[in-house]
Specification:
The protein is α+β, with helices and mostly antiparallel strands. It contains three helices and eleven strands, in the order βββββαββββαββα. The strands form two sheets. It has a six-stranded mixed beta sheet with strand order 8-1-2-11-10-9, with no helix packed on it. A five-stranded mixed beta sheet has the order 3-6-7-5-4. It is globular. The C terminus is likely disordered.
Amino acid sequence: MIDTLHVVFRVGATEYVIPASPVLGMESYDGATPVPGAPAYLAGVIQVRGRIVPVIDLRVRFGLPPIPHSLDTRVVVVEHGGRVVGLLVDRAREVIRLVREQLEQPPAIVTMESGGFVAAIANVGPRMVMLVDLPSLIGAEEKQQHVQ
C-alpha cells in the first residue's frame, strides 16, 4: 500500500488534488500582468521569488464563469518537465495523504468531457476529490501557446 501527499484545491464547487511533489509553493494572488495575444485561460505572468511565472486560470480552463478574487484565492506554483507554472485556484490550504487504492478511474464520459484533465477520482471520507492530470494540463497549455 503506497500513499503519497497531495495538495487539495478548490475550483468552483469541486475539490481537486495534485501530488505534492511538483508543488513549489502556494502564493496569495493580487493580479497578474496580462500577456498580449495569450489564450483567455492564461491570466498573465507573476513574479515568484525572482522568477517570471505564467499563471493558468483554472476557472477559465475548466469552463467556469469568473468570480471576484478573494483572500482565499491562491496560485499553486508547480514544476513539471522543467517548466514552472502557476495554477490560479479559488482556494488551496490543505494537504492530504492518499493511498493508491483510493484512486479510481473516472467514467469514460468524465475523461472525455473534462478535456483529459481528470486522471482519477478518490473518496476521502465524505468528500470526493478529482486527481488532475498535471502533464495534460501543462502540455495542453504549452501546445496552444506554440500554435499561435
